[in-house]
Amino acid sequence: MQTVNRIDPLRDAVAALRADGAVALVPTMGALHEGHLTLVRAARRQAAHVVVSIFVNPRQFGPNEDLAAYPRQLAADSALLEAEGVSLLWAPEASAMYPAGYATNISVSGVSEGLCGANRPGHFDGVATVVCKLFNQVRPDLALFGEKDWQQLAVIRRMARDLDLVRPHVDRILGVPTVREADGLAMSSRNAYLTPAEREAAAALPRAMRAAIAAIAGGAAVEAALAGLEQALLGAGFASVDYAQLCDADSLAPLASRGTAPARLLVAARIGKARLIDNMAA
Ligand code: PAF
To answer: Does residue 252 sit in helix, strand or coil?
Structure first.
C-alpha cells in the first residue's frame, strides 16, 4: 500500500492504478472500525484498486464540536488498511486540502437542512465541500459511503447530481448497508461512550424503529407510530429524542403518511454521553 499526502503524487499514483483497472474510493476521517472495513471490503469486490482517504475535515465540525479531540491514529489505521489489501492511502495535510486563501463552500439546500442539519449548522456544507474535492482529486470509478449516515449520503448524491460530478469525476456512488451488532444496534464509534447498562438499553433503538415501521405498514398513523417510538425510547432509558421522522428516502422531505415512493425512518436520540443515529427503509 502506497501512502501519499500531497496532490501531485496522488494524481500520479491514481493514474498508475487506473491503468491497471477500476478504482474505488472510500472517504473516511480515520479512527477506523469494522464499519469502515466493511466499506473497504465492499469496494474490493467492485474494483481492482481501492483508494482510502483519511482526512479529519475541520470544515464539518461546528464551533462547539471538539475537532481537537477527534481520534487520530494514522499508523494503526494504515496497518488495518494494508491488511485489507488497499492499494493507496490518501492522507492529505490540511494545507493540501485547504491551502492559504481557500474560499469556496458547497452548500446543498433542502436535503441538508432538517434532521442532523438542524442540530449541526454548517456540518453538511463541510461534508459536501470535502467530498466534492475528494471526487475531483481521485476521480474514482466508484465511491462508497455507509448508509448509517443516510442524510450524508443523500446530501452527497444531490451534490453530485447538481454539480454534474457523476461520470466525469465519479462514476457511481454506492451506499453500503449498516453493519449491526447481534442485538440490532448499528455499529458506531459512539457506542464506545456507553456504559454496559446504557449499551444494553441502546438496543431499544432498532427495536422501536422496527415496531414503528411495522405499525405504519399495518395502517397506523405516522404521527402516532412516531410518538410510540419516542415513548419506547424514553421508557428504555434514552434521555431525549432529537428527531424521529419518516422521510422521502431521496429528498428527505418529511412524510405525514406512507406513499408509494421509497421512504426512510430516521432517528437521533441521546443516551448517556452518546447521541445515536439510525435509519431504516420504511
Ligand atoms: O463519514 C465521514 O467519515 C465523513 O463525513 C466523510 C464522508 C469522510 C467526509 O469527511
So the answer is: coil
State whether the beta carbon of 147 lies less than 6 angstroms from ligand 1.
Answer: no
Distance CA 279, CA 282 (A): 9
Instruction: Kindly report, residue by residue over 54-110, the tens digit of the pLDDT.
Output: 999 999 999 988 899 888 999 999 999 999 999 999 999 999 999 999 999 999 999
Q: 179 a known binding residue? A: yes
Q: Which stretches of the chain are assigned E, i.e. beta strand?
A: 2-4, 23-28, 49-54, 88-90, 142-146, 172-176, 240-248, 263-271, 274-281
The answer to whether the CB of 151 is under 6 A from ligand 1 is no
Angle (deg, nearest 10), helices 222-236 and 204-217: 160
Ligand 1 centroid from CA 159, angstroms = 14
Q: How many Å lie between the centroid of ligand 1 and the Cα of residue 238?
A: 26
Q: What's the CA gap between 137 and 98, in Å, rounded?
A: 13
- pTM of the full predicted structure? 0.95
Whether 28 is in the pocket of ligand 1, judged by its Cβ within 6 Å, is: yes
Rounded distance, CA 66 to CA 38, Å? 27
CB 130 within 8 A of CB 11: no
Nearest CA to ligand 1 atom 3: 28
**Of residues 214, 207, 279, 208, the one with CA closest to residue 246:** 279
